[in-house]
Amino acid sequence: MTRALDDAALDQLFRTARTQNGWTSEGVDDSTLHALYDLVKMGPTSANCSPARFVFVKSAEGKEKLKPALSANNLQKTMAAPVTVIIANDMEFYQHLPKLFPHADAKSWFVGNTEMIKATAFRNASLEGAYLILAARALGLDCGPMSGFDAAKVDEAFFAGTSYVTNFLVNLGHGDPSKVFGRSPRFEFDEVAKIV
Ligand SMILES: Cc1cc2nc3c(=O)[nH]c(=O)nc-3n(C[C@H](O)[C@H](O)[C@H](O)COP(=O)(O)O)c2cc1C
């Protein structure tokens, strides 16, 4: 039977977790990145289409390739982060549906339907990016997601000649609490939700 996580786990995933702007010197092992992906891949996507592609930028060379694409406010913290994940949408994701969703001819739902390909790739890769944030927190890492960058430049530097387009970036590591911004307010239930 599935039971609710305890308060410590809920705090770690949601209530005390913060978006990070600075990092300690503690690195992130490649084995942790593999463990992270092994959680992310289990998150649900429509028809199990799994359109997200991940580049874990760790090396100085990789960071230099990323640098010209970053907005000014994201530059320093991204260069300092132990890892920056590029989450991309594979616009040819549906080619893999015979493997990923073998009990139906799901590929045929997409072939020639550009709008459905775009919407499905963006929706599900964005979800996989969200799973990555929560999986990272579950593994004891901190995150700094970012949309402040030039996606065309990231595509050119990392995905030229492929069917991948950049969705968003996430810095990963161990956060420096002194660099966290003040907590912004959240909506209360009645402001944004209703039960009908
Ligand atoms: C998709 C996405 C894009 C974001 N882009 C940026 C960004 O470019 N630069 C930045 O400093 N913060 C960025 N943020 C961080 C948000 O402002 C932050 O998560 C939000 O204010 C909540 O902060 P908290 O998690 O500390 O409560 C982004 C967050 C998300 C989820």
Brief synopsis:
This protein is of the alpha+beta class. The protein has helices at residues 7-15, 30-40, 60-66, 72-80, 97-100, 107-110, 114-138, 151-159, 189-192; strands spanning 52-57, 83-90, 142-146, 164-173.
SSE order and pairing:
Elements: H1 7-15, H2 30-40, E1 52-57, H3 60-66, H4 72-80, E2 83-90, H5 97-100, H6 107-110, H7 114-138, E3 142-146, H8 151-159, E4 164-173, H9 189-192
Antiparallel strand pairs: 1-2, 2-4, 3-4
Helix pairs in contact: 1-7, 2-7
Flavin mononucleotide (FMN) binds next to helix 4 and strand 3.
What does it look like?
Helix 2 crosses helix 7 (114-138). The mean pLDDT is 98. The protein has a single domain (19-176), classed as NADH Oxidase, CATH 3.40.109. It is α+β, with helices and mostly antiparallel strands. It is 42% helix and 15% strand. The protein is built from nine helices and four strands. It is globular. The chain has helices spanning 7-15, 30-40, 60-66, 72-80, 97-100, 107-110, 114-138, 151-159, 189-192; strands at residues 52-57, 83-90, 142-146, 164-173. The longest helix is centred in the middle third of the chain and has 25 residues, at 114-138. Flavin mononucleotide is lined by residues 18-19, 73-74, 145-148, 168, 183-184. Residues 18-19, 73-74, 145-148, 168, 183-184 line the site of flavin mononucleotide.
